TrEMBL record:
<feature type="transmembrane region" description="Helical">
    <location>
        <begin position="212"/>
        <end position="231"/>
    </location>
</feature>
<keyword id="KW-1133">Transmembrane helix</keyword>
<feature type="region of interest" description="Disordered">
    <location>
        <begin position="239"/>
        <end position="258"/>
    </location>
</feature>
<keyword id="KW-0472">Membrane</keyword>
<feature type="transmembrane region" description="Helical">
    <location>
        <begin position="72"/>
        <end position="93"/>
    </location>
</feature>
<protein>
    <submittedName>
        <fullName>Fumarate reductase subunit D</fullName>
    </submittedName>
</protein>
<dbReference type="InterPro" id="IPR036259">
    <property type="entry name" value="MFS_trans_sf"/>
</dbReference>
<keyword id="KW-0812">Transmembrane</keyword>
<dbReference type="InterPro" id="IPR011701">
    <property type="entry name" value="MFS"/>
</dbReference>
<feature type="transmembrane region" description="Helical">
    <location>
        <begin position="12"/>
        <end position="35"/>
    </location>
</feature>
<feature type="compositionally biased region" description="Acidic residues">
    <location>
        <begin position="241"/>
        <end position="251"/>
    </location>
</feature>
<keyword id="KW-0813">Transport</keyword>
<feature type="transmembrane region" description="Helical">
    <location>
        <begin position="47"/>
        <end position="66"/>
    </location>
</feature>
<dbReference type="Pfam" id="PF07690">
    <property type="entry name" value="MFS_1"/>
</dbReference>
<feature type="transmembrane region" description="Helical">
    <location>
        <begin position="100"/>
        <end position="122"/>
    </location>
</feature>
Length: 258
């Protein structure tokens, strides 16, 4: 159903990585942070919602601004810079312990939201502009599949990694408690491991969450480098790639006929 030959285009590969980047640099936080704020730190639901506005609000404006910036900067520069900004926000957030004052968290949350908003506004256009026009429909299908599947896979993997990190802090016999902490059920976790104090559970969760954010920071920086490299190819190289592909397909057809 999917034309995998499109992955011969380096710029197309870069766009697929760009489609997956928001999944682990932004979307997973939409699930994990409210759980942390309400279930672990005891924040009210309204208070947690207000905190999430800092993360999401930039998406209302900056994608449009990213489109305007293409007049002066290449899409590769804008997208790569946005991911680096998002990685900086993740790294900043990783240094804030669980239970930090809400106003302290606004800075890193805004930074993550600002960073991810820049490539967000360009991804859809890039998905069809990096392949020949006659293959734009297939490119859109692959892009949408990568984007949606990436979010589900990223959430599953990140949740499993967070659970494993918490368990490594609590000990090998606290697997159930680790899973309950991931879902924000602090009371159930405390009843499962009564020997471990309430404060120790929160500390273990905070340390594991920080480690997870370090991992996400590294992945986001690596993605930014690859995206900048692949999407930053010169226009001349891009034209040459587009011209070579039909020739390769004709050679394949000739070989099949022979």
């Amino acid at each position: 159903m999917l034309d995998l030959s499109l992955f011969r285009y380096p710029r197309f590969v870069g766009v697929q990585l760009l489609a997956a980047a928001p999944a682990y640099a932004f979307v997973v936080l939409l699930i994990l942070l409210p759980v942390r704020f309400v279930g672990i730190e005891g924040m009210s639901e309204i208070g947690a919602g207000r905190m999430m506005v800092a993360l999401s609000a930039p998406l209302l404006v900056l994608p449009i601004a990213a489109g305007l910036l293409t007049r002066w900067f290449s899409p590769a520069t804008i997208c790569g810079t946005g991911l680096i900004i998002s990685a900086a926000g993740l790294f900043w957030l990783s240094h804030l312990a669980a239970g930090s004052a809400p106003f302290v968290l606004i800075g890193p949350l805004l930074t993550i939201g600002v960073g991810i908003s820049l490539p967000w506004g360009l991804m859809d256009g890039l998905a069809v502009s990096v392949v020949p026009k006659e293959r734009a429909g297939m490119a859109t299908g692959i892009f949408s599949t990568t984007r949606v599947a990436g979010e589900g896979v990223a959430l599953a993997i990140v949740s499993a990694v967070l659970s494993a990190l918490i368990q490594s802090k609590l000990g090998e016999h606290a697997a159930m408690a680790a899973q309950q902490l991931v879902t924000g059920n602090l009371a159930a976790a405390a009843s499962n491991v009564p020997a471990i104090g309430h404060d120790a559970l929160i500390q273990s969760y905070g340390d594991a969450f920080s480690t997870l954010l370090w991992l996400l920071t590294g992945i986001t920086v690596l993605t930014a480098a690859v995206v900048f490299s692949f999407l930053g190819r010169s226009s001349a190289s891009a034209v040459a790639e587009d011209a070579e592909q039909p020739g390769e397909e004709e050679d394949t057809m000739r070989a099949s006929n022979a």
